[in-house]
Amino acid sequence: MELRPYPRPIPYGRQCIDDADIDLVVETLRSDFVAQGPQVQAFESELCEQTGVKYAVAVSSGTAALHLSCLGLGLGVGDLGLVPGITFAATANCLRYVGADVGFVDVDPLTGLVSAKSFSKRGKAFFPVSYSGAVPDLEGISKAAAGAGAFVIEDAAHSVGATYGSGSKSASCEHTDAAILSFHPVKHVCAGEGGAVLTNDKVLADRVRRLRTHGVEQGERWLYDQTELGFHYRMTDLQAALGRSQLAKLPDFVERRRVLASRYQEAFDEEPFEGRIRTAPIDAGSAVHLFVVHFANEQERAKAYDFFHQHNVRVQVHYLPVYRHRYYGDDGHEAMPGCEAFYATCLSLPLYPALGDEEQEFVIQCLKAFLLENEG
Ligand SMILES: Cc1ncc(COP(=O)(O)O)c(C=O)c1O
């Protein structure tokens, strides 16, 4: 029987907001502070508790967090930052914001992750991305960075709530100089929009805090002094209230994502999926932000994308390699066989805590129908 489109769109990711979230935002709206009040500070303390890091500075987006990390670490003209080819463009753009150069590095063709080997080139800063919620070998990468005299900034936009190695937490900065988070609605913790810089270095945290508010230092009474050129990258109390309420549910969100991911894995171990699509083994510590399947080739992936969309399943491709964007010119970098192979075949299936069992079953049936229709 022909599969009919799902009655409503199933996105690849979305926020999961409940009454407790709404109540805290409304309470904040009724309070004396909606912008720079107590919620931002409380959110920052709770981020420290959840990740085990010493300092967290909440900002207006993950992109702002990347920009301020670069400025805070003193990256600028003449410096080279190394960024995986497979990531969201913001990971590379932050280097351009400060006048630094971007060097792209290759990733594993199945997991999309970098390794210590990816960072064998010299650079002033390495940006390992915890792609899809799985944390790369930050310990090995930090050793490579120490040898090269480079900073390490974990782009943990996908991985808050994840663990790696012998139980280290993503964004704890146990092996990195800084980490950044994003609180965009598709991420684990939604604050509407928002981000944070995390670090164990007080000097860096203080500088980032200053830079997020114009580069200003508060003096006595009415006096304040702008000591360097900063930005208006502050988070509001409304965003922080939502972020706090969401963060309290992070362990449950990650657990639900893991249950959904295992369900996909189990289904795909059988006919007709087995041998037709490939998935990376799910790391036990992964926060499973994305569930990525790989098709046999680019043509099949494109057909599958269209088939899903025709059936109201809004799968997505994460990501077009950043060096392929027109702005980056697709030249001046070495061959990236891992990034190319990854990009050619990857497709992210719906995965978010509020994804219902029935919706997930439809996604599985949709993929099954596609594979049966396109046999041989
Ligand atoms: C890997 C990665 N880094 C950085 C960002 C930027 O975060 P934001 O959208 O909060 O600026 C994103 C957001 O999509 C991301 O996926």
TrEMBL record:
GO biological process: polysaccharide biosynthetic process
UniProt keyword annotations, A-Z: Aminotransferase, Pyridoxal phosphate, Transferase
Modified residues (N6-(pyridoxal phosphate)lysine): 187
GO molecular function: pyridoxal phosphate binding; transaminase activity
Active-site residue list: 187
Entry superkingdom: Bacteria
Recorded family membership: Belongs to the DegT/DnrJ/EryC1 family.
PANTHER family: DTDP-4-AMINO-4,6-DIDEOXYGALACTOSE TRANSAMINASE (PTHR30244:SF34), TRANSAMINASE (PTHR30244)
Protein name: DegT/DnrJ/EryC1/StrS family aminotransferase
Species, as recorded: Pelagicoccus mobilis
